[in-house]
User: Fold this.
Amino acid sequence: MHRTPLAPHRAGTAAPPVRAAFVTLLIAVVVVAGARLVLAAGGMQVMGMAEYSTLIPIVGAALLPLRQTLILGLTNLVVGIVAYGILLPSMSHASRITVITALVASILVSLAVCRTRIAMEGRLKGLTVARERLTLLSEASSRVGGTLDVARTAGELAEVAVRRFADHAAVDLFDPVLKGEEPTPGPHAGPVTLRRAARRSVPAALAAAAPPGHSAVTYCQGSMPALSLLRGTPVHGQFTGADDGEDYWPADPDGTGTQAPHSALAVPLRARGVTLGAALFTRSRHRDPFDADDVLLAQEIAARAAVCVDNARRYTHERATSVALQRSLLPQVVPPQPAVQAVARYLPADIGVGVGGDWYDVIPLSGARVALVVGDVVGHGISASAAMGRLRAAVRTLADIDLPPDELLTHLDDIVIRLQSETAPTAAGADEDEEAAADTVGEFVATCLYMVYDPISRRCTAARAGHPPPVVVRPGTCARFLDVPAGPPLGVGGLPFETAEVHLPEGSLLALYTDGLVESPRLCLDGRLERLLEVLSEPKLTLQDTCDHVLDMLVVDRTRDDIALVVARTRALDDGHTVAWELLEDLSEVARARDLASLQLAHWGLPEAAFLAELVVSELVTNAIRYGGSPVQLRLIRHDTLICEVSDGAHTAPHLRRARTFDEGGRGLFIVAQLAERWGTRQQPEGKTIWAELALPPATAPAPAPALATL
Assistant:
């Protein structure tokens, strides 16, 4: 059977010179035969013209394709037999022998030429098919796996196969593969359910009318795809009728009206010992069915594509793990704060570089204050996310002890340097892989911006370590950058960090961000920063609208770096929410402090909290007077909770301990810790402050009122 080449071609499209030669030789056969008959009728000698019968096939084989050569040879033979059949009765015996010899020679020469030509055509056909197969393999190697996306890789495989190999191609993968997970190990017996990852057909309009959509496809037991997945080898077959093989191959797997296949081939996609899915190819009746060589070709293409699909699956899994790790290390929600109303956005980098080490945080501090933090660990991948988690935990721990921003960054810089030394490769006993992994982790540096806002004094204190400056928008003014001294990045060491302190009116807007928001390889950094100021100067109704507007206007390329953005609007706690009293350094002031706290809570409409507040105030004031120094101050702050603060002039911080049975003291802080939701100590230039946060009754609503006069 004549085999159709891989590349489809239209029959009957011979070049004009070949067609002209073919017609000319046919005319020559007829003209010469006619001339011979005419000359013979006139009694002229025609025996010298008999040799043309042996030359015509040779000339035709040199000028014409195989089909035209066969037609010309048969025509020459028939015309010669007819012509000599007419002339033989009138010839002499010697002439008859000569003519018969010429006819036999012509037949033998024609057979030899045709056989030689058929052999040459077969070898040429084989070389052409082999070249086309190598071209298809080369195209598959270059076009399949250009991206690390499972669905796109499957689509590239189907597209390459349809162009040269099949009329219809589909790639079905197990559902975990599309999600980047490990597929279920085989063998896969019984009905098999896969996801249609890609589909291509000829003509292209049919494929465009039915996109894959990752729809589920179930193959019954015994069908060709199920058998290929069960055996791990290709399975192919040929169908002779429209209803033939309906139980062996789904006639219309997509429900698109595609005709039943004439020849089908199912090839499992296996890589690194794992079956990922199956590639399905079909040919319609206008093409030759699949043969053994086609099966080997499809198996080779599928093997190469399976490795690309598995690489994409592994990358998807690694990136999903990194994103999940980073998101788990970031705050899931921004809790409400009495100091600010804050909204945060985090955008991981798209496929290409993976996640990075950007993070943000909104940390409640003592005295109704709040800390706003953004940071960035240089690098990408799981190592950067893990380092980010360690730094965020360190920042929260340092923030809990109420360190000033510059001191906090100094301690954080020491932590980064220590982490670098701990993860550095050892000189002896470490192999190359361990050293490479350690180098990747051990050389990280980070940037950080730390701000503390006090809603009572309305002062904002900030320090930064190699991070872009924050933006502030005061009510009625345009956005501008806060003049915060730029310290070195964390982990570099060198200059100390400096603090900037500014007064912010109520309703001011603060914007903290990472460098992924403003850096772009195609745009100037200064221009991007100016654009950020312009965007933040445009007023929006809500903070969510502000965040979305900033990201829409500034995010150009998400494939380079992560983006973290925190936008906060400042609040203020006026005299209706806070009150303070100066106390004498005398233990008799303890009773006065209890009375002041009780009267103020009654004035605030919180009589239910008076008992606990008196107890906590009594213990804190007693410790301040007994172990601290003047000046002693009592302050109450009321918002969502009740905060009791006692300040004194000593810098020695108290420590919680469990008193023994016969100890006369040591139970004050233990009682405070049991009664309060939170408690702690913060250092100040003029001394320290011990604070305790008490929960308010659930039905209590904030009701600002003026403070009572000092008793």
